[in-house]
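Researcher: Let's try something more involved. This one mixes different molecule types, so please make sure each is placed in the same coordinate frame as the others.
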Amino acid sequence: DIQMTQSPSSLSASVGDRVTITCRASQSISSYLNWYQQKSGKAPKLLIYGASSLQSGVPSRFSGSGSGTDFTLTISSLQPEDFATYYCQQTYSPVGFGGGTKVEIK
Amino acid sequence: EVQLLESGGGLVQPGGSLRLSCAASGFTFSNYAMSWVRQAPGKGLEWVSSIGAGGDSTYYADSVKGRFTISRDSSKDTLYLQMNSLRAEDTAVYYCAKDYRSVPAAHQYNWFDPWGQGTLVTVSS
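Model: All components are placed in one shared frame. Result:
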């Protein structure tokens, strides 16, 4: 099975900060990588699909990059509503999620 | 508006069974694959199972293979997850989600959007 490793597992940041979350696959997954945001007690919400495509309705401060084994989710200017847990997901074979990154208020 | 509404969760004893349902609306249910994802208390997301649009292709995580069965009824726009031989480690919130594709094949672009609100399954004596 493909292992997905996210780092860091948690981070503290301030409103307006630039935040970068990394997801590494144990083998190449091309660009079959998605990012989700989950707020406490809520269902996950799709942010980025195909490694770099922004889902409709998602603010442009969110962006994704990478291919192969290394991927990045960037929030260009952290907003109060962005404090949440973020998960990467590979759909190369068959489906798997990273362990999550919790973004907390500094 | 696409909506998914899970039901059927609850408290069940180890070794028991439970069937979850996910009622879909706002899209042509028979055109899309569907999936179940679970989240144990305080833990991350774990993919459980997926089913193709036609219901003839099914996929399972190793942790549930042989115990869980995914199915769908397009006449009712409803997805199901039959869970047998339940264990304490199956305790989780179970989410259903709509796939981007009609067949959840490997090595293809696919994603889950949207997700239902989840239903809690607790396995305990």
